[in-house]
Amino acid sequence: MKILLDECMPLDFRHSFPTHEAHTAQWAGLKGKKNGELLRDAEIAGYDVLLTVDQGIPHQQRPLGWKLSIILVRSRTNQIEDLLPLVDAILQALETIQPEQTVVIPP
């Protein structure tokens, strides 16, 4: 699965998903994009999932038929030490997530 980590995620968090192709927004050239632009450009670039802590992103409109899914992570902060305990739940969500779906971790 091709995962895009939103720029609000720590850069090194991408290493938490070794069985997936995980890129940061910076690496993908999508840093600084507004939420709607980010979703559009991630879809165009072929990403399957956007991983974010930005509570506003799931409320952005996505055109019908787009396949990009969102995993919204709710943690105390966006620091890696607060995100690492949620990796197993994120990996489980990646196994079952469907196109256009938004999954909240923890539920």
What is the gist of this entry?
This protein is α/β, with parallel strands linked by helices.
Fold and architecture overview:
The chain is an alpha/beta fold and 107 residues long. The chain has one domain (2-105): Rossmann fold (3-Layer(aba) Sandwich). Helices cover 22% and strands 20% of the residues. The chain has helices at 35-44, 80-83, 87-96; strands at residues 2-5, 21-24, 49-52, 69-73, 102-105. Strands 2-1-3-4-5 form a 5-stranded parallel sheet, with helices on one face. The longest helix has 10 residues, at 35-44.
Strand content: 15-25%
Q: Which segments are poorly predicted (pLDDT under 50) over 5 or more consecutive residues?
A: none
Reading off the top of the CATH hierarchy, the class is best stated as: Alpha Beta
Mean pLDDT: 93
What labels describe this entry?
five-stranded parallel sheet, alpha/beta, 20% strand, single chain, 107 residues, Rossmann fold
